[in-house]
Amino acid sequence: MSEESKKFGAQYDANVYSSYRKDTPVELIEKIIAFLKEKPLDTAVDVGCGNGQSTVILAPYFKRVHGSDVSEAQIEQAKATRSLPNVTYAASPAEKLPFEDGTVQLLTAATALHWFDLDTFLPEARRVLCANGVMAVYGYLNMKPLLDDPAKAVEVDELYIEYEKALESYHVMSRVSLLQNRYKDVKFPFEEVNRCPDFRCCFEGKLPDIVNYVSTWSGFQNFKKVDSKGAEELLDYFKKSASPAEKLPFQDGTVQLLTAATALHWFDLDTFLPEARRVLCANGVMAVYGYLNMKPLLDDPEKAAEVDELYIEYEKALESYHVKSRVSLLQNKYKDVEFPFEEVNRCPDVQCCFEGKLPDIVNYVSTWSGFQNFKKVDSKGAEELLEYFKKRLYEIGAACNMSSEDSTTLYRNFQLILCRKTKDGPFV
């Protein structure tokens, strides 16, 4: 066991880790299980198991699952909160596994390998694995919001870089760099080593979840022990930067118009809406608007209906890749949102027409967050879906004597909600 691992295990707050680290996604485990050749599945071992988040998810597939971690506090947390009949836990180092030679079919290390003494652990892992046994090493560096605006996504990346830089002297860099470099410098002593493409996992959450997550970093925890005030100031800076809509840099009652263009559904509304009210002056207005689709303006009602059906089909194909709770807010025209203003006007849709070409529509649907997520998971499948959308759209256009090269009228139906603050103070 590395000295850094001993220190980390002894000092780490198991409750913080359990509260703010996300469970291992089922999709990832299913990929690992599919890679295993030997059936039936008997024994799995999760090393560096922490509070058992990455251990219990193996239980449905194996007769026996064992989780080990150097931290006794983490193991106690695992036993208390993630106990199952076929799952056992023990506080023990990854470098000395309590199993006989060739008795383990799957050994996993979830965002943990960089803490081990690899010169000792890797031969030990090979020792306990049976013929055709698998060691699955996986991990992630950052948790981020899925943003449609590329410029804002870059800002989040830059914020993480800034945060990491501030913690650099508090991280055990030789360990963290192994993970940051995706374990590229690690020589795995196995006949078959597969470095899989990144696997993006989406889940429902709020921006505070990200702030809580970065507070679990070992570098932040080390900084906090040395300079508690400085660490909290850094975390507060990260929080304010990561949540710009929820923390507006204006004094009370100083803004006359606040707009949110196809964006409101991405905000933490419990925080944003009171903040919007705070900065608006008396009779100040918040304008919320957005659109879902871009379509050609067709004279033939039947062909227009075919375009509508094509969009429904495309949306259905991407359903599992969208952050549904967010997109559904926009799809439902924010009907479920309670705006804290005295005057709320839900206007009829505003149709906005402009000149364009059919390829503009194809390019537009390729920017959808659901499509981008699909592309990360299955690039070929995503491109085939987009090609199908394109082909079908062009067929409808051709039936209306419209080619992909022709300039034509396109339109977007904008939803518009106008909210007026007529009184100072909180909404009653």
TrEMBL record:
<dbReference type="InterPro" id="IPR013216">
    <property type="entry name" value="Methyltransf_11"/>
</dbReference>
<feature type="domain" description="Methyltransferase type 11">
    <location>
        <begin position="45"/>
        <end position="136"/>
    </location>
</feature>
<protein>
    <recommendedName>
        <fullName>Methyltransferase type 11 domain-containing protein</fullName>
    </recommendedName>
</protein>
<dbReference type="InterPro" id="IPR051052">
    <property type="entry name" value="Diverse_substrate_MTase"/>
</dbReference>
<keyword id="KW-0489">Methyltransferase</keyword>
<keyword id="KW-0808">Transferase</keyword>
<dbReference type="InterPro" id="IPR029063">
    <property type="entry name" value="SAM-dependent_MTases_sf"/>
</dbReference>
<dbReference type="GO" id="GO:0008757">
    <property type="term" value="F:S-adenosylmethionine-dependent methyltransferase activity"/>
</dbReference>
<dbReference type="GO" id="GO:0032259">
    <property type="term" value="P:methylation"/>
</dbReference>
<comment type="similarity">
    <text>Belongs to the methyltransferase superfamily.</text>
</comment>
<dbReference type="Pfam" id="PF08241">
    <property type="entry name" value="Methyltransf_11"/>
</dbReference>
<feature type="domain" description="Methyltransferase type 11">
    <location>
        <begin position="241"/>
        <end position="287"/>
    </location>
</feature>
